[in-house]
Amino acid sequence: MSKLKIGFYSLYETEIQDSYVGTILITDSYGIPLEFKCTHSVKATGIQKALYGERLKPYIGIELCGVPLIKSIANSPDFIFVDAEYLLSIRTKITTPVILIGKADKEKLETPEEYNKDGKILIAHEYNTFEPVEIQYHPEFEKDNKNTFEGVFSICTNFDLTEPFARMKKSVEILGKSDNKFK
Known about the structure:
By secondary structure, the protein is α+β, with helices and mostly antiparallel strands.
C-alpha cells in the first residue's frame, strides 16, 4: 500500500464574492505532493445565480472545476478525498472512488455505533497520532468502501488526512495575491 497515490479535491471561495477556485492535490501515501492543479477563478453571472439557485456551487464544484481537473491530472490517484458532502457526487462522473473526509465528531467518539448512521465510518487507528477522522462514500458506490478502506486505513497513521485541504487553501490564497486570475 505504500505506493498509493491519494487525491484531495476541494472548491474554495475567493476574496471576490461568488467566485470559486477548484483545486486538486495528488500526494504519495506520506502526504508528499506529486502534482497540484487548480482552475482560474470561476464567477457566476447574475442569470446563472438566478437559474441555478442552491445548485450553483455544486455545479461549479463538480461540472466546471472538479471533473475537468480530475481528468487533466497525470498522476491518477487510487482514490480522491473531498471535504464537502456535495462534492461526493463527482463520483457519478468519474471512475475513481471519491471519499468525503472530515474530523470526527468528538461527542460521538464514546459511542462509535453512531458512525453507522448516514453511512459514515469512524477511523481512529490505535497507533494514530492524529485526530480521528470520519469518512463517507457515495451511497451508489458501496464497492468503493470494500476496494479502498484498507488503503485509507493503512495511510491514516502516516499523516493527518484532513491537513492537505489547508495546504491547498493556502496555495489558492498565495496565487490570488500574485495573479488576478485566482481572485
